[in-house]
Write a structure and sequence with these properties.
- The chain is globular and about 80 Å long.
- Strands 1, 2, 3, 4, 5, 6, 7 and 8 form an eight-stranded mixed sheet that branches. It has a two-stranded antiparallel ribbon with strand order 9-10.
- It folds into three domains: 121 residues, Butyryl-Coa Dehydrogenase, subunit A, domain 1, CATH 1.10.540; 99 residues, Butyryl-CoA Dehydrogenase, subunit A, domain 2; 152 residues, Butyryl-CoA Dehydrogenase, subunit A, domain 3.
- 49% of the residues lie in helices and 15% in strands.
- By secondary structure, the chain is α+β, with helices and mostly antiparallel strands.
Length: 396
């Protein structure tokens, strides 16, 4: 008799997970209020937008984040980390999104989850570095924008036990802040995972022009990059990437939910203060109804988010379905509240000085990253009913 693992009723979110979330909220509220964030990333955007300079970030704040152990959340205790559950990491990342934290934390956690999924001595050594403060990012997307494991962006050849990498990895998040890239490559009929130092000979980074000022993004060009055996994470990594994919979707969904909640709360506060026709504008149905709809959509997305995290923690067979549902809902909720927040703030909503645009652009980036709502629903349809051409109902 076989049993199916299922998530606990409380999503596995206990006292430790709540403490991590509350600590993150308190710390970021004190160290990164909106005015400081706006001054940091939006005071002088011309160097980033017009000259292609790096997106700014607070390195002193990053040092505090490292000291608090956030980079080691996905690493085990033997590696110097804390081995926190995905539910706990999700709660913390939601606070990162709520404060639009400019940092390499999320890509570092994503790379850590891939390494944790891969296991082995090489992965453990890199996780130990990350727990100690090293930064990382994933280089797993090809030039067609595919994140599927079988569509690895690089080609590898085996030369005397070393791998030589060629090709271009696209959409590498916070690449210019990363110390190491976890890259996927095709070696014959296998997919391999490698850890490549960003300063490696033959590796160059080309900045992408993106509107989100809280991060950078790059294309990573590999020309004869040599990877020794001590940096080969896995020589058969397709199952590793397939297994970790739901976790990556959950992290991006958490960022979306946090930023969307911040936009909602900011707009609700404004609707209570802004007076028109001798009443706060929140009195009028044209304002209050969209805000209630946004609240419902965000709460729905958050429920699916923590359900997905709990399913992954439990090792459930429903993990991918749950994660794609969460990313679909979070992307759609973010699109709705981003639009309504700008609209309901009226004339100041689209001004550079107000700061809403920071969250708007972060949400816009995350909506598309790893696939938007439409893409996730297409994948869900394939998971639940199979390819349309093989559906038995089409023959009736």
């Amino acid at each position: 008799m076989t049993t199916t693992k299922t998530a606990p009723r409380d999503f596995g979110f206990g006292e430790d997970e709540a403490m991590l979330r509350d600590t993150a909220r308190k710390m970021l509220s004190e160290r990164l209020p909106l005015e400081k964030l706006r001054t940091l990333v939006a005071e002088a955007p011309e160097p980033v937008y017009d000259k292609g300079e790096r997106a700014p970030w607070d390195k002193q704040l990053w040092a505090e984040i490292v000291a608090m152990g956030w980079t080691g959340l996905a690493a085990g205790e033997a590696e110097g980390g804390s081995g926190v559950s995905l539910a706990g990491i999700t709660g913390m990342v939601e606070e990162v999104g709520r404060h639009a934290l400019p940092s390499p934390l999320i890509p570092t956690l994503m790379a850590s989850l891939v390494l944790r999924q891969a296991g082995g001595a090489v992965a453990s050594q890199i996780l130990a570095r990350i727990a100690g403060g090293a930064t990382a990012s994933l280089a797993i997307t090809n030039d067609r924008g595919s994140w599927e494991p079988e569509d690895a962006p690089l080609i590898a050849s085996d030369v005397a036990g070393e791998l030589v990498l060629h090709g271009d990895a696209r959409f590498v998040q916070d690449a210019f802040k990363a110390d190491v890239l976890v890259a996927s490559a095709r070696l014959g009929d296998k997919i391999v995972l490698c850890a490549v130092e960003t300063g490696a000979k033959g590796l160059s980074l080309e900045a992408d022009h993106i509107h989100d000022l809280t991060r950078d993004q790059a294309s990573a060009h590999f020309v004869g990059v040599r990877v020794g055996a001590e940096a080969i994470v896995s020589r058969d990594a397709e199952l590793v990437l397939e297994g970790v994919w739901p976790s990556l979707l959950v992290l991006v969904s958490a960022d979306l939910c946090g930023a969307s909640e911040r936009l909602l709360q900011t707009t609700v506060d404004y609707a209570k203060e802004r007076v028109q026709f001798d009443r706060p504008i929140g009195f009028f149905q044209a304002v209050k109804h969209p805000l209630v709809n946004a609240m419902v959509e965000i709460d729905r997305a958050r429920s699916l988010l923590y359900y997905a995290a709990a399913e992954i923690d439990a090792g459930s067979g429903k993990a991918e379905i749950a994660a794609r549902m969460a990313k679909s809902a979070a992307s759609d909720a973010a699109a709705f509240i981003s639009d309504r927040a700008i609209q309901l703030h009226g004339g100041i909503g689209f001004t550079w000085e107000y700061g809403l645009h920071i969250y708007f652009k972060r949400n816009l980036h995350n909506q598309a990253f790893l696939g938007d709502g439409v893409h996730q629903r297409k994948k869900l349809a394939e998971l639940l009913i199979g390819p349309l051409s093989t559906s038995p109902n089409l023959d009736r």
